[in-house]
Design goal:
- This protein is mainly alpha-helical.
- Among the domains are: 79 residues, no CATH class; 116 residues, Receptor-associated Protein, CATH 1.20.81.
- It contains 11 helices and no strands.
- α3 crosses α5, α4 runs antiparallel to α5 and α6 packs antiparallel against α7.
- The termini are far apart.
């Protein structure tokens, strides 16, 4: 019994000595960790420089694109509604549109994918010019939907803040900070309203800008209600509470409307996807049996 115990102790001592011998010191471990962090930061800086170079190239192409004042105004508003507020967003969008159209033209006018075809290549130019606008409209619609879903909770929190004694400006600031994690889109818009108020804009102008940037009908109605409340001097808390109840009623009605449309929307998948399979499963064996019995009879009668 003594020999195995001595062997275990000796092995433990040898292993511990080896670990202490070959283990890196604290300074070495810190230097190694700093090198890893520095390398990761260098990689992120390299990726950021590459993205900035690509964006600058796209921006230069977009600045040379022909565009009208009316088109610029509509696209700038759509970019704001999609959440792109940087000054170069419009030029970058035009650059993406031109590069996408030229890319599709090169793909269909050369033998990379299929045989070269000028007609298909010109059609690809049109599709490449239209698709970025459709994608931007889709992004703006999704963002408006997220803001619409978050509006009811924001109103409840705003009612609590106003009834607790905060003013409307402080309530907007509080709601924007509290909803930053759950609803970042609405939180960013409310923070931008606070920045405009600090910059010297009137409350009505800042609220109207909020309605224009989001493009949400419910938020536009809320802005109109707040402006009228501020103008006529009525109770803000009572107005917000009434509008919150109205908004929840509208949300329930929208859900009921979507549920009522489900039956109509299911007709097309049923007709084109499910009914043919059911038809083949139910009628197919009978049709095969009918053909195997009827065709020999026809052949015999013709002979």
């Amino acid at each position: 019994m003594l020999l195995p115990l001595l062997a275990f102790v000796f092995g433990s001592i040898v292993v511990g000595a080896a670990v202490l011998k070959f283990a890196p010191g604290r300074a070495v471990a810190i230097d190694r960790r700093l090198e890893e962090l520095t390398a990761a930061r260098d990689d992120s800086d390299t990726d950021q420089r590459r993205s900035e170079t690509l964006i600058s190239l796209i921006k230069r192409i977009g600045e040379k694109a022909p565009k009208t004042v009316k088109e610029q105004g509509a696209l700038r508003l759509r970019l704001l509604q999609a959440g792109f507020r940087r000054p170069e967003a419009l030029a970058v969008f035009f650059g993406i549109r031109i590069m996408f159209a030229l890319t599709l033209f090169l793909l269909f006018s050369t033998s990379i994918i299929t045989r070269p075809n000028v007609t298909i290549a010109l059609a690809g130019v049109g599709v490449g010019y239209v698709l970025p606008g459709m994608a931007l409209a889709r992004l703006a619609k999704r963002r408006a939907h997220r803001i619409r879903l978050s509006l009811a909770d924001a109103l409840d929190l705003m009612v609590v803040s106003v009834e607790a004694g905060l003013g409307l400006d402080q309530a907007l600031m509080r709601v924007g900070s509290e909803l930053a994690f759950a609803y970042p889109d609405l939180s960013d818009e409310l923070r931008l309203v606070n920045l405009e108020l600090r910059a010297g804009k009137s409350r009505s102008e800042a609220l109207r800008n909020l309605a224009d940037r989001t493009g949400v009908d419910d938020l536009s109605s809320l802005v109109t209600m707040l402006i009228q409340t501020d103008k006529f001097g009525t109770s803000v808390a009572q107005s917000l509470r009434v509008y919150s109840e109205t908004l929840r009623t509208k949300r329930r009605q929208r859900a009921e409307e979507a549920a009522a449309k489900t039956g109509v929307k299911m007709v097309f998948p049923l007709v084109f996807c499910i009914f043919p399979a059911l038809w083949v499963v139910t009628i197919g064996p009978a049709a095969i049996k009918f053909m195997t019995v009827l065709f020999p009879m026809i052949e015999k009668s013709s002979k």
